[in-house]
Write a structure and sequence with these properties.
This is Ribulose-1,5-bisphosphate carboxylase/oxygenase activase. This protein has 23 residues and is mainly alpha-helical. The chain has one helix at 6-16.
Length: 23
Amino acid sequence: KMGISPIMMSAGELESGNAGEPA
């Protein structure tokens, strides 16, 4: 799921605590 949309994921992951890309 890290190769789908790093941009959309970053926002969702930040809230999930699984941020793959700490912006």
